[in-house]
Q: What sequence folds into this?
């Protein structure tokens, strides 16, 4: 009956049924028809189990980071970051795209949301890129890819949820994606310049003297200090052991409210109210999803789905790195059907026992999940971030696909390969800072 439950889940997702409802539908089938004799399971045992799983302080961090991201999106913080980065690389050909990429990396590390990053940075960068002669299909593809850097450079909700499900250190998960995030930022910037090398329509900004650049840096840097201080404060507090992830998330909200109201003056009482409402709705959806998947994952374990999946992998190969290749394919496929958080909450209970059986460090697997779920956000047919970039930038999806595929092949695939098959890239920072094993 477990295979029927999986078929129901995949079919409902393909048909566009809301993710929590899809989870509950699959869960209901197993409750009625699961078990060795198809007698089902007792719901009175599943409901308290799911409630106990939800009783976690770390989940509060998700709501806090969502709220902080919404406040920063409307608080004109991104504009100051873009102006600061533009001083150093805006004068080279393709440099404006690099400015957008680095700005997405910085802003994404503050809010941890790809959609918020794309909406905020994109709204500022797309007019500049269009004026600079960039093909809008290329510009939308670049900003869509760059906005996902917030899912690699911590903090982000995906890894918080992964940590909650797996029971491993949140900080260890955060540290595991820092180096892949830096590599991805470098590759996106380099490939952007390479793709535009022969495009005569792309304009080059005026080169400033050292004196002019220093003066601009002092002026713009002074305005950007409040925005730049936030990731330093949050990440420094977490990595330094001064604050837990939840405390850092709450502090980020308390910090960005006065910054948005009184420093950058982009936040109003009305927009703040709308942010709080949106945060409440988004958090409610995520919590319902987590509650339903807690019951579903428990049923998967009772049905021994991880053992069945491992036997299926072993039927192809017993080499752990070949199995990891198949797991990557599976994660990419799931990312094509649903959003990043849904992929994490659904696949982690199934695949984590297999990862432990193969002897792979769970922190290493956390980075693999992060890269895969980010890639899934721009992989059709779902590709929510790619379609959002088209709407924000005003470009048709057929114009976006060619450069988007180029960025996927030349940037995401190499980073996924390095993250999977060279564990030290992922595990060096957790080992140095937390003493985790290789």
A:
């Amino acid at each position: 009956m477990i295979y029927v439950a999986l078929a129901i889940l995949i079919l409902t997702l393909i048909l566009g049924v809301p993710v929590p409802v899809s989870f509950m539908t699959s869960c209901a089938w197993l409750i009625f028809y699961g078990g060795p004799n198809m007698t089902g399971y007792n719901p009175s045992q599943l409901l308290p189990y799911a409630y106990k799983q939800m009783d976690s302080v770390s989940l509060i961090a998700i709501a806090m980071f969502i709220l902080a991201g919404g406040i920063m999106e409307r608080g004109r913080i991104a504009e100051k970051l873009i102006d600061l980065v533009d001083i150093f690389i805006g004068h080279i050909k393709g440099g404006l795209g690099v400015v957008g990429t680095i700005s997405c990396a910085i802003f994404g590390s503050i809010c941890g949301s790809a959609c918020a990053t794309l909406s905020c940075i994109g709204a500022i960068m797309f007019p500049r890129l269009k004026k600079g002669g960039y093909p809008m299909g290329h510009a939308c593809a670049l900003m869509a890819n760059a906005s996902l850097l917030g899912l690699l450079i911590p903090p982000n909700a995906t890894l918080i949820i992964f940590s909650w499900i797996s029971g491993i250190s949140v900080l260890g998960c955060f540290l595991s994606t820092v180096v892949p995030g830096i590599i991805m930022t470098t590759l996106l910037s380099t490939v952007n310049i390479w793709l535009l090398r022969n495009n005569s329509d792309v304009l080059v900004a005026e080169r400033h003297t050292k004196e002019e650049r220093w003066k601009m840096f002092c002026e713009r840097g002074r305005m950007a200090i409040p925005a730049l201080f936030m990731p330093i404060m949050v990440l420094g507090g977490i990595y330094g052991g001064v604050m837990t992830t939840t405390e850092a998330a709450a502090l980020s909200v308390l910090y960005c409210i006065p910054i948005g109201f009184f420093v950058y003056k982009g936040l109003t009482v009305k927009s703040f109210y709308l942010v709080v409402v949106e945060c409440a709705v988004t958090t409610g959806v995520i919590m319902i999803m987590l509650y339903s998947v807690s019951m579903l994952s428990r049923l998967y374990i009772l049905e021994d789905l991880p053992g069945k999946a491992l036997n299926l992998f072993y039927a192809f190969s017993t080499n752990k790195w070949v199995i990891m290749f198949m797991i990557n394919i599976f994660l990419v496929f799931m990312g094509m059907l649903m959003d990043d958080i849904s992929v994490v909450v659904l696949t982690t209970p199934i695949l984590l026992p297999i990862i432990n059986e193969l002897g792979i460090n769970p922190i290493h697997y956390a980075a693999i999940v992060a890269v895969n779920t980010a890639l899934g956000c721009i992989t059709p047919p779902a590709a929510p971030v790619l379609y959002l970039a088209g709407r924000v930038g005003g470009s048709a999806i057929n114009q976006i696909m060619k450069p988007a595929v180029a960025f996927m092949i030349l940037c995401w695939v190499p980073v996924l390969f390095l993250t999977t098959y060279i564990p030290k890239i992922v595990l060096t920072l957790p080992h140095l800072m937390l003493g985790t094993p290789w």
Notes: The chain is about 80% helix and 0% strand.
